[in-house]
Amino acid sequence: MFGIDAIDLARMQFAFTVSFHIIFPAFSIGLASYLAVLEGLWLWKKEERYLEVFNYWKTIFAVGFGMGVVSGIVMAYQFGTNWSVFSDKAGPVIGPLMGYEVMSAFFLEAGFLGIMLFGQKRVGPGLHFFATLMVAAGTLFSAFWILSVNSWMQTPTGHIINAAGQFVPDDWFNVVFNPSFPYRFVHMVLAAYLTTAFVVGAVGAFHLLKDKTSRNARLMFSMAMWMAAIVTPIQIIAGDQHGLNTLEHQPAKIAAIEGHYKNVKGAPLLLFGIPDNEEAKTLYTVEVPRLGSLILTHSWDGELQGLESFPREDWPNTFLIFWAFRIMVGMGMIMLLIGLWSLLRRYQGRLYEDRWLTRAAVAAGPIGFVAVLCGWITTEAGRQPWTVYGLLRTADSASPLNGIEVGGTLIAFIVVYFVLFGTGVYYMLRLMAKTPVSVSGKETTSLKRASGMTGAPSTLDRTKS
Q1: Mean pLDDT within 288-300
Q2: Could you report how far apart the first and last alpha carbons of the chain are, in Å?
């Protein structure tokens, strides 16, 4: 269809749906933890502003969570429709892991979400806080299992191959805790926290520009800037360790990320350039001498493998991941800059008065999503041409596909997703645009009742009245 073969259309379809999906879990993971922190601070300090901000964000969380669930279901069906060979061969490994995600994470979230959203006036504050903690834990468990599945596909261990050519678990511990999993899990969770922090910071900054005395907007902005200042440097360190792990297990991916086609000692860091797989060289480079080797080998004279060390048929799309990686890093540098800027203004006592900082925070609201998407492009496109790295090729993983059918459903997905999820995102933005005003204690303070009791008057109370 349109000169594109069926397998590439299937890859485009999955890439499109996963790109839409991932922005919602990335936001909900961070926002669930933020809600738990807010409610914990309210219980501790008894300051109504924490509960007011909690109630402001919990509705936004509910909308984002719902869209994440719906968009995730679609991807599960694609394993059967477009990638049935992969499902057959890798199903004994990835099937149970995805089942554990449903049975632990999703059940935990679904079981306590209703209490968190609607039970504030119906259960005691302790039980309500516990429900919020369980929802936050559920989002983390979900990330745990999904990252375990994806990491096994990147660095497969703990399995054997049976007579039917299927990957069968031999050591579940090594399957789950495969070599790249700890690095990917930490990197993704920190990315989710930073993504949420910059959205919260942007909303707080937006309302500060309208009213710099708003205590709730100040609270949002201050907490978000603390997260940016503290977590961004940690994320940079985690990303460095993730890169070293990738160098060990997927050196071809690192060669493509760095844009190196030749084996080089004392390799430069290519800041910019145009990788060309046909010419096997990166054109028009802007580089820093020896810095590439220093970052990846921690030695000025360390040798980096170029793509020439690997069969050409195993080369990924170098241009795509070269630039996706640099956009991700660029977004991280902006986060670091804003975090350090906020520290300076906080030290000067001008955190809420610097209108250039608040404008920058508003503009930086989406950069976490951009970084997450580019990070996933780097990870997944860099794994090609394999679905299970080094063991099962993408070309051998697909169903018997018809290009017209796959292309037609891709077009349908594009139309439906932009209408459905575009409407959801618009509604979330409308909620964020509402002023986080202070309300009366009667409307924010949960009733002090025992677990399971409703806010209705007792029979004795009605008799007396």
Answers
A1: 86
A2: 75
According to DSSP, the residues that pair with 286 across neighbouring strands are 272
**The two structure tokens encoding residue 151:** 């990491």
Cα–Cα dist 88/101, whole Å: 20
Q: Which residue has the higher pLDDT, 88 or 80?
A: 88
Name the DSSP letter for residue 104: I
Are the C-beta atoms of residues 21 and 409 closer than 8 Å to each other?
no
456: helix, strand or coil:
coil
**Residue 453 pLDDT:** 39
CB atoms within 10 A of CB 440: 8
* Angle between helices 215-249 and 251-258 in degrees, nearest 10: 120
Q: 435: which 2 tokens?
A: 């002023």
Work out the angle between the directed axes of helices 367-383 and 251-258 (0-180°, nearest 10): 130
Closest by Cα among 434, 462, 453 to 53: 434
- Residue 3's pLDDT is 66
Q: Which H or E element spans position 161?
A: strand 159-161
Place of tokens 């990320």: 257
- Parallel/antiparallel/unpaired status of strands 392-393 and 386-388: antiparallel
Q: Give whole-number Cα distances, 110 to 18, 136, 402, in Å.
A: 22, 11, 37
- Which has the closest alpha carbon to 153: 175, 123, 136? 175
Instruction: Please report the DSSP string for 406-450 in residue order.
Output: HHHHHHHHHHHHHHHHHHHHHHHHHHHHS------HHHHSPP---
Three-state SS for 389? coil
CB 407 within 8 A of CB 2: yes
Residue 460 has pLDDT above 50, yes or no: no
Length of the chain in terms of residues written: 465
Which helix (H) or strand (E) segment holds residue 284: the answer is strand 281-288
What's the CA gap between 196 and 24, in Å, rounded?
A: 10
Residue 446 has pLDDT above 60, yes or no: no
pLDDT of residue 323: 95
Burial (CB count within 10 angstroms: exposed 0-12, middle 13-18, buried 19+), residue 457: exposed
How many angstroms separate the CA atoms of 368 and 21, rounded? 15
Over residues 85-98, mean pLDDT? 90
**Closest residue by Cα to residue 104 from 164, 157, 145:** 145
Q: Give per-residue pLDDT as tens, 34-47.
A: 999 999 999 998 88
**111 touches 134 (CB < 8 A):** yes
Provide the token pair at 58.
């919990």
